[in-house]
Known about the structure:
The protein has helices spanning 9-17, 30-44, 63-70, 82-95, 107-113, 133-143, 159-172, 189-198; strands spanning 53-57, 74-79, 100-104, 118-124, 144-155, 201-212, 217-221, 227-234. By secondary structure, it is α/β, with parallel strands linked by helices. Strands 3-2-1-4-5-8-6-7 form an 8-stranded mixed β-sheet.
Amino acid sequence: MSDTVNVDPSEIAKFSELAHRWWDPDSEFRPLHQINPLRLGWIEGFTPLAGRHVLDVGCGGGILADAMARRGADVLGIDLAARALKVAQLHALEVQTQGVAYREVSVEALAAEMPGRFDVVTCMEMLEHVPDPASVVRACSALVKPGGWVFFSTINRNARAFLLAIVGAEYLLNLLPRGTHEYEKLIRPSELAGWCRSYALDLQATRGLEHNPLTRRYWLSADTRVNYLLATRKAGA
């Protein structure tokens, strides 16, 4: 693998260690299973998935990619964690999900190989784990067709996010493995929106994702102080 690949080896190792637990809804990945219907509904509120060519960047074990394929999309999931991809592939075989494939490739390399190929690109809970998130945004823009949709979700960088998403979720409530997130890698909505504008992605909507740890309930709201989602559309349609 080239030294220029936009990846933090420690992040790959972190998720590879847990790869076998991706599809256990009671594992460390419980939050991803719980928020997946919200993510899916958010995306479908802007564009239908049936019949669309969709790319899921940083797909991990395939929770979102599999769900989008089951809505009728033709999905390619990419990641650099080989063990997580194996889990995704095995799950698709086990449950006979049609229309989903997985590749171990960086989003930048795929952008050079398949520019303008996709109707929809999703990049969820991934930007905060790479050294150069702006590079990922640029590649996502290159991969989507003019008029196509790109969806991001990540975590804000402020005191509230530090207390709830790191101290609370990882150290007090044990909702996530300790060390899952690093504060300095978190991204303010203004920063992400700025990168989108720089790469011809027009911001359409922003939404917060909230969580009640007592009821274990998640919901979308106008509060973007911790977890948030961005819907963007490629200019030039």
